[in-house]
Design goal:
Number of strands: 10
Mean pLDDT: 86
Order of helices and strands: HHEEEEEEEEEE
Distance between the termini: 81 Å
Number of helices: 2
Strand content: over 45%
Largest sheet: 10 strands, antiparallel, barrel
Low-confidence stretches: 1-18
Strand order of the largest sheet: 1-2-3-4-5-6-7-8-9-10
Radius of gyration: 26 Å
Helix content: under 10%
Length: about 180
C-alpha cells in the first residue's frame, strides 16, 4: 500500500477523515421533497373546486360547496353553504402510516362526524359511526371533470346492508349551471 493511502486509512480508523481535495466543492443541497405530493395526496383532486350541489332525486339546489387544498396540499378542506340548514365543512387528509383518508365534519350546530377510508374503484369511500349502532358511508364518484355523485348510506347491521340516506349531484360552478 502507498504511504498516502495508509495515512488516510489510519486517520479514518482514528475517527478523522482526510481533508477534501481543494478542487472539490460541497455538493448543493437537494431540494426537500414535497411531503404532500404524489398519488396518496392526489386521491381527492377530482373534488377540488367550487360546486353547486343538487338533490339527485328532485333536482333542487341544496347549496354550494367550495373544496380546496390547504396546508401546502397536505389536506383538503370543504366549506359547505346550504340554501337552508346549518353551514358546515370538513377537513380531509390521509394518514401517512396507514394511507387511509380521514374526514372530520363539523357544522355550526356542533354536529361532528368522523369518517375514514380511501379510494376504491374510481370512487372515494369513507365510513364511520353516525350514532349508536349506525354506520354512515359516503361514496364520492367523479362522473366527469365537471360533475360528481355523492351517495350517503347508513347501516344498522355493521355494514351487511345499506339504506339510502341521500344522493347529491355536484356540478362545477360556471360549467353550464
Amino acid at each position: 500500500m502507498s504511504l498516502p493511502l495508509l495515512l488516510a486509512l489510519a486517520q479514518s480508523a482514528g475517527g478523522e477523515l482526510p481533508p477534501a481535495s481543494p478542487a472539490s466543492e460541497p455538493a448543493p443541497a437537494a431540494a426537500p421533497a414535497d411531503p404532500c405530493s404524489g398519488p396518496l395526496f392526489a386521491a381527492f383532486d377530482f373534488w377540488l373546486g367550487d360546486w353547486n350541489v343538487y338533490d339527485r332525486g328532485d333536482g333542487a339546489l341544496l347549496g354550494r360547496s367550495r373544496v380546496e387544498k390547504v396546508n401546502s396540499g397536505c389536506a383538503v378542506r370543504e366549506t359547505w353553504t346550504p340554501v337552508a340548514g346549518p353551514v358546515g365543512g370538513s377537513l380531509n387528509a390521509p394518514d401517512l402510516i396507514t394511507a387511509r383518508w380521514h374526514r372530520y365534519w363539523l357544522d355550526k350546530d356542533g354536529q361532528r362526524i368522523e369518517l375514514e377510508g380511501g379510494p376504491y374503484q374510481g370512487s372515494m369511500i369513507l365510513a364511520g359511526p353516525l350514532g349508536k349502532g349506525t354506520v354512515l358511508r359516503i361514496t364520492q364518484t367523479p362522473l366527469d371533470r365537471d360533475s360528481l355523485r355523492l351517495l350517503a348510506e347508513v347501516s344498522t347491521d355493521d355494514g351487511l346492508t345499506w339504506a339510502l340516506l341521500f344522493e347529491h349531484l355536484y356540478l362545477r360552478a360556471g360549467s353550464g349551471d
